[in-house]
Write a structure and sequence with these properties.
Elements: E1 8-18, E2 21-27, E3 41-44, E4 47-55, E5 58-64, H1 65-69, E6 78-84, E7 103-113, E8 116-122, H2 125-128, E9 136-139, E10 142-150, E11 153-158, H3 160-165, E12 176-181, H4 183-194
Antiparallel strand pairs: 1-2, 1-6, 2-5, 3-4, 3-6, 4-5, 7-8, 7-12, 8-11, 9-10, 9-12, 10-11
Amino acid sequence: MFTGIVQAVGTVEVVAPRQGGVRLTLDAGVLDTAGIALGDSICVQGCCLTVVAHAGRKLGFDVSRETLGCTAGLAHPGEVNLEKSLALGDKLGGHLVTGHVDGVGEVLAFDDAGESRLLRVRVPHELARYVARKGSICVDGVSLTVNRVAADEFEVNLIPHTLEVTTFGRLAPGVRVNLEIDLLARYVERMLAAS
């Protein structure tokens, strides 16, 4: 379980093919790696991955073809948002995030809004019903509040701090992003369907 509050921006340095997927090796940047052990979960660009190698600032993760097929930003070297898993009793600064990517969205616009930026994302049709105005959504591992919803898209405001401490500075129209809908929406739908 995670909060969607990015703790560091890391860099995927190597994507090595393996039978059934790839092995990612990344530099964890300023992430505190002292307490990380093999088997721990780390949220990498919104996707919960298991640490399979750890040496200093370097972390290794095995990523299956299935995961590569339903996420964005894990198949090539580049910057990624990182968050260590939440421990019982930790402060919950964002919202409850599982690291289970529900779908991949596409950036439609990334426009100036004073010192902030407005990010507009096309959401897969099957996920659109879960996105609510003033609700939470996780984009590339970042907990955000939805400002506007229209058909199969939503808009969020990104403050300067968020732009500085995440990979969002690289966004542009056409970029694909990992999306996780709010956990509560999933359970509400399931309960209503069972009624």
